[in-house]
Write a structure and sequence with these properties.
Dihydrofolate Reductase, subunit A; 6 helices; two-stranded antiparallel ribbon
């Protein structure tokens, strides 16, 4: 029987966490979305697309991770705490990707003191310095306005952060997926239709269905939601 660093999940979810608990190094992405593929409304409201059971899942994933990675847009729109509150376990390092230096030091992740935070900025003279946050500079992809996901992973591995949870938002998760930088992808589908809104996965299209990604997949009920666990390395 595996030993989990957090309160045991329901029996039907135990195998979902087993590959992550047993491996010392992984990169897992997560999105919670509607039936029509939206992670938020047009105004950016996303609390909450998925139900409480998926929030429990997010917190279990945080407890398993060395670091949570989110983009600057997630911090701006949601002002998340990115801590473990719904389950037992340690708070991981909060990693905020800000390639264009748009965030100010007033956001909660930089001031709340609940967990250590690393701001990864693509602007050399942009820095946030508080009691619980530090800034590191990372060059952007040549001619682009974003980081290369592989460079982000290398930066965190150099700090001995091996279990990486890419929690959002859709642009960040999509870039890690597009560049083959995810080992697993969790997509939780809620039985709700939002209509026009912010898209979850956003990748270049393919001409034929045999070019579409069809990784080995398991699915799990989480209350009224269904979580799909995609194994991108098999």
């Amino acid at each position: 029987m595996m030993t989990l660093p957090f309160a045991p999940p329901p029996d039907h979810l135990a195998e979902l966490y087993a590959p992550l608990e047993q491996s010392g190094s992984w990169v897992t992405g997560h999105l919670g979305q509607s039936l029509d593929g939206r992670i938020a409304t047009l105004s950016g409201a996303s609390c909450y697309v998925t139900a409480a059971e998926n929030l429990d899942h997010l917190h279990r994933m945080r407890a398993l991770a060395d670091a949570i990675v989110v983009g600057a847009g997630t911090v701006e729109h949601d002002n998340p705490r990115l801590t473990v509150r719904r389950v037992e376990g340690p708070n991981p390092l909060r990693v905020i990707l800000d390639p264009n230096g748009r965030l100010e030091a007033s956001h909660g992740v930089f001031t709340d003191g609940l967990a250590e935070t690393l701001l990864v900025s693509g602007v050399s003279d942009h820095a946030v310095s508080t009691a619980c946050a530090q800034t590191v500079f990372l060059p952007k992809a040549s001619g682009a306005r974003h980081f290369r996901p592989a460079d982000v992973i290398t930066l965190l591995h150099e700090r001995d952060l091996r279990r990486l949870f890419i929690e959002g938002g859709g642009i960040t998760v999509s870039r890690f997926l597009q560049t083959d930088c995810l080992d697993r992808l969790h997509i939780c589908i809620a039985p709700v239709i939002i209509g026009e809104g912010i898209r979850g996965i956003d990748l270049p299209g393919c001409e034929h269905m045999d070019q579409a990604l069809r990784p080995p997949t398991r699915h799990y009920e989480m209350g009224a939601d269904v979580l799909f666990d995609l194994d991108l390395r098999s």
